[in-house]
Structure prediction request, 848 residues.
Amino acid sequence: MTDLKIVSVAITPVALKDPPLLNSSGVHEPFALRSIVEVHTDAGIVGISEAYGDDATLALLHRAATAVVGTDVFDLNELSRRVAEAVGGSEASSPTELIGAASHDKTVAQAFAAFEVACFDAQGKATGRRVVDLLGGAVRERVDYSAYLFYKWAEHPGDYDVDPWGEALDPDGIVKQARRMVERYGFGSLKLKGGVFPPEEEIEAVKALRQAFPGRPVRIDPNANWTVETSHRVAAALEGELEYLEDPTPGIPGMAEVAAKTSLPLATNMCVTSFAEIPESVRLGAVRVILSDHHFWGGFRATQNLAALCRTFDLGLSMHSNTHLGLSLAAMTHIAAATPNLTYALDTHTPWKSETEDVLVGGGLTFTDGAVTVPSGPGLGVELDRDAVARLHEQYLTCGIRRRDDVGWMQRVRPEWTGKRPRF
Amino acid sequence: MTDLKIVSVAITPVALKDPPLLNSSGVHEPFALRSIVEVHTDAGIVGISEAYGDDATLALLHRAATAVVGTDVFDLNELSRRVAEAVGGSEASSPTELIGAASHDKTVAQAFAAFEVACFDAQGKATGRRVVDLLGGAVRERVDYSAYLFYKWAEHPGDYDVDPWGEALDPDGIVKQARRMVERYGFGSLKLKGGVFPPEEEIEAVKALRQAFPGRPVRIDPNANWTVETSHRVAAALEGELEYLEDPTPGIPGMAEVAAKTSLPLATNMCVTSFAEIPESVRLGAVRVILSDHHFWGGFRATQNLAALCRTFDLGLSMHSNTHLGLSLAAMTHIAAATPNLTYALDTHTPWKSETEDVLVGGGLTFTDGAVTVPSGPGLGVELDRDAVARLHEQYLTCGIRRRDDVGWMQRVRPEWTGKRPRF
Prediction:
């Protein structure tokens, strides 16, 4: 086989419609930003991946894109070195505060991941192998996802398309949303995005879900919007009711305090979102489940390293999701299928995406009984729909959003809103 | 690309001549045992690796060999599952007590590694890629090794070939041996296998080496043959003189006690030789350098996972060696070249091997300025010399040794010998 050197990289920012989903920061804006990364090689093979699409990420990706030209798609160490050099001392940036504090390491990891995934896709296309096979082989051909439930408004403030999900502002609304989502997708696990309403209301929502879906695992994620005291109270009220309690309170020491007083496993994608944060967390026993995410942990191999760390320290492994398109879903499915100890159902925002919006030929992957089957073609096994990419890029150009700002969008409706955490 | 399914596995035990090298267990026997594993695929491609060759290992390899037939060489997860199942509840065995206590996990890891490395070789041959490239790319094309110095007798008791190295039983002998080894191979680092003579004599040997080779890093490895008290004394005497102090005393708690009183980094390939042993070591701060070894850590990917763990917990990473042939040297070179934080010069027993004995075409890899260049061909980039394998297999058949027994061989000369540790 000849080399497979990168000759150019195309980065296309896209915007997809996003419903008014509520969280501890505020509310999702009418459009979410992503980017499509295409790595062109001298053999004519093109590897693709999906990344964040905010201005800061795009600037980083463009700098890295110039630097990686000439690298072989198998030479991930060289790719990493060049991306780190290109990112250099540039100010750390995070596409959202909902995945924890920004750091230089995380900034490099995010930029690298976008290229690493595309390189794996190219490797697969070149060798006629699926990415899951290059990652060590599928331990499961079907990857389970969870129903990601959100408190939400019926519609955005202003003149925007109305999503089909309707309002969900109380336990009844959440149960109704869950029923609809479970009926449509077949999810076996439920996750409630909390930190929105007073904890007592969210406790009621969890209990309503438990009653409506007996035996189905339920998680709640208030995105660190509770004090340690509040977390103690909620944890006590939900003992035995949760699969795990995700990021009740900010910071590793705070999480450790909460963990010390509950039998519920604490999970995180906020206080441990990089390797550098693992030692303190292990020392303090802060969390028992880490939510991986190849987009910010540094790609597929980094996720496998994280999985090995979790095995070694007897930590559970799950997977986090930000709003995404089908290309990210394909990547998530491949790495999850190759990771034996990723045993929890993964988060995904797919149900919140308009069914008519995606970047893949065929409109994206589908769920059966809550699971996505690993695509069977070489590489990631999915193909870009050029017209669809062009449409979503056009939408990016006209949507007016250039960085995610859940706080600012909430301020349209509630001018006094600050998004400051913990609020309860 | 079609599948690359394993259709059969050949396991050939071989014996190579071994000089009377002294260690804390006793003395090397006149022959060391290894095995050559050949994984045949339905595409006609054959992947090769080198493993231990004692009876217990051979029995395990044979059981696993039957179980892995039908597995694709890329499907390492399935390979792992099948090997673990084949090993089953069989009694844990270790090819030598010098790599720590046996455990079930380590037994599985050892058996798996033999197949995983051969599968990587096959993957490389099938894709036209070097193993180092499949492992993420070469961060270095030349891998540094250290001069592995041993106290030794001039010859074995009995009627055996005499090696060309002569006797080394005191600081002068060790310095003379080092000079010869450095002249011949160009090694830039020196490692003394200690735990043989009273510590004061070995301290003198280290100091003599430091004087004879100014500026060159020196390590000493008494294989846990010192009490904590003795270790404190030796560490104090060698403050500032050692690159690291390897396994002065048995067990993680003992190592932690030694570590607490010295500025010398402690290293190990005895008290932390599996992932299960890492948490306690981290908690107690027992070691600052882990010596990897793909043969017992579970192969290439496991070594990369170990490397990620070491990066995360700010531990150094080096590499251990048992007596081996050129096929293992090739494997060690590939994984080291792909591992950025494997920054110490690796251990190798290569100089102790007869120059006329190897299993590779061309007689094995060569050292220039203490380093081995990563072979350039696909896979591991080396080829079996069938006649050489046959000769060493014949030697295996006639040598009479079926498991390593340094204690027993020492008892030929010193009947009262027990090999009990710590002796000093």
In short: The first helix of chain B runs from residue 55 to 68. The first strand of chain B starts at residue 6 and ends at 17. The radius of gyration of chain B is 20 Å. Chain B touches chain A at residues 1, 72, 74-79, 81, 126-129, 133-134, 136-139, 275-276, 278-279, 282-283, 301-302, 304-305, 308-309, 311-314, 338, 340 (CB under 8 Å).
